[in-house]
Design brief:
Flavin-dependent thymidylate synthase, alpha+beta, three-stranded mixed beta sheet, 2 domains, four-stranded antiparallel beta sheet, Gyrase A, domain 2
Amino acid sequence: MTISPAIETGTDQGTLFAPEIELRSEITVELVDHTASDLGVIKAARVSTAGEEAHREERGDEYMGGLIRYLMRSRHGSPFEHNSMTFLVHAPIFTIRHMMRHRMWSFNEESARYKDLKNVFYVPDRERALKQIGKPGHYQYVPGDEQDYELVSTATSEAYRAAFREYQKMLDAGIARELARVVLPVATYSTVYATCNARSLMHFLGLRTNRADAAYVSHPQREIEVVAEQMEEEFARLMPLTHEAFEKFGRVSP
């Protein structure tokens, strides 16, 4: 998704009644730390038969690929837990809340109790399907027309402008941040550190990406899928053999 360059301001009888607001569609994920490797999976698996010698093993890709495929196929999941990946995610609050549904992760999010939130809000770009057709569980999303996109842009910017105006009013009056924030929408951007192991990440990817070749096809909201796609790129780079096995066996976490 791309950044929307729109900056919205408002005036009331010539007086600025709210600071500028930035409308953004970009959602970013950055890998900031990790201890992830395919060899780590091998060492964790081999300790059951090699004991302390497993930690000193060095294996080639052919051996590692075969063992990793066996572990994935047989649902021996614990060897995939002895690693970590930490991502810095910048996304609207409603997307971060989707992430926090995944309980085997660790999260630290910027706090609106301790800092003023920035005037940055999410608006879908032109590639985002807008309309829902069908019943829950049996529906699909389809693109809107120009009028639909104009409606979304106008409605969201007006709501964000009004919310941020009242938020700023309360802060200026000395109201505590933890109370002033209650008027802000879930489309406000936030930043979070998110840490997981490969097994938890594979479970996340299985649910938060739409892949026709998956054993269990999922239909996530597009915004969280954008997060998942960026995380999967890093996962595939760090642990190519594990990612290959994940793909081969239906994108199901072991």
